[in-house]
Amino acid sequence: MNRTDQLIAILGIGTAVPEFCLDQTDTSQRLAEALKEYPDSMRWAKRIFKQCGVATRYTCEPNLLESAEDCRYFSQNSNRRFPSTAERMEIYKKASVPLGLNVARKALEDAKVDVSDITHLITVSCTGQFLPGLDTELVKGLGLAETINRIPLNFIGCAAGLKAVCMSRQIVSNNPTSKVLIVCVELCTLHIQPSTQREALYGTSFFGDGASACIVGSAGAEHTAIFQLGKEHSVLLQDAAGDMVWEVGDYGFDLYLSPNIPKLIGQFVPEQVKHLLRDDQKPDIWAIHPGGKGIIDKLEEIFELTEEQTRPSRNVLRNFGNMSSATILFVLNEMRQELQALHSKSASGLALAFGPGITCEMIQITYLPSVTLQAQQYVHDHV
C-alpha cells in the first residue's frame, strides 16, 4: 500500500480496571456516614451520587471500600491522618505499571502486531507521576526496543487519550511503517478528598480508575473491526481556563469542575465540528468522552443524537465512571463490540474528548469490519 491509499487505523484495543469495585449506592451511603455532622454536604452528596449516571466504578485502593470510620479518604475525624500526595503517588507507582502492561499486551494481541514492530510508545496519565516513568517500565516489561521513540503525555487531563491518537495518526502518516503503542493509565480515585466542599464531592461521585491501550498503524488484510482515522481538529476555548482546574495539593490533586461546562461545550463545539464535517453530513457514530452525564446530554440535544448513538458513552460512564484519558478507548471498544454484534458494515463519525483549558480534541473515525479493496475505496472516497 503506498502513501496515497494508506489506511491509518486503530488496529487493536485493550482495556482493564483494578480489582476493587466501588458500588455507587454503597459508596454514597458510606460517604454520607462520614458527612453526618455536615447535613448540607451530606444531602448534596447523596443527590449528585444518584444523578451522575454511574452505577459502578473501580479503584486500586482497597481502603476506599472500608467503613466511613476506617476510610482515610472519607473520614472527617480530625484525629485520622489523611493520605499525603507522596503516599498517593507511591500507590500510583505500584498499581499503574501492572495495569499498563496488561492493556498493552491486550492491544498487541488484538492488533495482531508483534512487540518488535512497535516504533513509538506514547504513555498518557494525569493522575500520577514518577521517574523513571511508566514509559521506561513498559519498555522493560514488554520487551520493547531500547531505541523506541518514547513520548510521555503527562498532566494534560481527560482529552489526552484522544490527543495521543491524533498524534499517532500524524506519525504514521509521515512514516507508513511506523506502529504506535498508546498506553493510558489513570488512577483517579487516589485523589478523593476528605472534604465537605461541593467541588470535591462532585469529583468523588463519578471518577474511577482504569487503563486502556491501542495500536495505531497502517492496516493490512489481517486486521478486522478497526477504526480508520481521518482528519483531526484541536481547539482551546478562550476565557474558560478557570472552569476546569486540576492542581497538585498536599493531599492529592485538587479538582474543580464548573457546573457551566456542559453549557460551554454546547456553545462552542458545534462550530468546531464544522472543521471536520460538511453541512449536510450526519455522522453515524459518535464516540463521546463521558466527562459527565451533562456533557453527553448536551451533545445529544444539540446534534439530535439517538439513544443508540450515545449508548456506548453512557454504558462506559455507568459501568466504569470517568477514567480521564483512558475513557475514550473504553468508549471505542464498547462501540466496536456493539457494531460487531450487529454485523454492521462501514460506519463513519467522530470521536470527541474534552479537558482543562477548556480543550476539545476531535477526529474523524470510520468503523471497518475488514480491510478489503471495497473498504479502501470507501475510505478514499469519504476522507
UniProtKB/TrEMBL annotation:
Which UniProt keywords are present, listed alphabetically? Transferase
Chalcone/stilbene synthase C-terminal domain residues are 240-365
One Pfam annotation, family name? Chal_sti_synt_N
Domain Chalcone/stilbene synthase N-terminal residue range list: 8-218
Question: SUPFAM superfamilies, from UniProt?
Answer: Thiolase-like
Q: List the CDD domains hit by this protein, alphabetically.
A: CHS_like (cd00831)
Q: Which family does it belong to?
A: Belongs to the thiolase-like superfamily. Chalcone/stilbene synthases family.
> What's the protein called, per UniProt?
Naringenin-chalcone synthase
